[in-house]
Amino acid sequence: MKNIVICASLNDHSLDLLKLLKGNDLLKDAKLHFVHCFEIQIYTSDFSPYVFPTEEKYPEIETSSKAILGNLAKEICTEEQLKNADFQCFFSHSPKERVREYLKESNADLVVVATRGKHGIEGLFSSSFAEHLLKYSPCDIHIMRPKDEE
């Protein structure tokens, strides 16, 4: 059985793109891992640094995130896959690296990620999660791109 990791950004655009996986042959005979990683950010002020999110918020954020991932799984999984699905929510200063570590830990055969499809100057200066996975993923990668709007 294949291990497939579905990296989900929790915005509507990403979730809608990932819902297109329903019935896709990529998911056949696979254990699915639904993953989201929050970036821990540190802000500095005149008096002291501020970390967001704070550790006391982790359980609340994790519960909400897993609920969203669970709803995504209900949209794209078969009943059997849903029983065996794994849901992970991580907090890291470097989400790209944390997901890469998880791909190794879970012995992933494939990682699926949705992109935002930024173009022009906006795309030039973004540090893309998908681009990072293309360079450093220990497994195959399936990138879901938005359809061009005409």
CATH superfamily: HUPs
User: How can the largest sheet be summarized?
Assistant: 5 strands, parallel
What percent of the residues sit in helical stretches (DSSP H or I)?
25-40%
β-sheet strand percentage: 25-35%
Low-confidence stretches: none
Q: Give the radius of gyration.
A: 16 Å
Roughly how many Å apart are the termini?
Answer: 40 Å
3D architecture notes:
This protein is of the alpha/beta class and 150 residues long. It has one domain (24-52, 64-144): HUPs (Rossmann fold), CATH 3.40.50. The protein is 38% helix and 27% strand. The longest helix is centred in the middle third of the chain and has 19 residues, at 58-76. It is globular and about 55 Å long. It starts with a strand and ends in a 6-residue tail after the last strand.
Task: Spell out the blueprint of helices and strands.
Layout: E1 2-7, H1 12-19, E2 30-39, E3 41-44, E4 49-52, H2 58-76, H3 79-84, E5 86-92, H4 95-105, E6 110-114, H5 120-124, H6 129-136, E7 140-144
Parallel strand pairs: 1-2, 1-6, 2-5, 6-7
Antiparallel strand pairs: 3-4
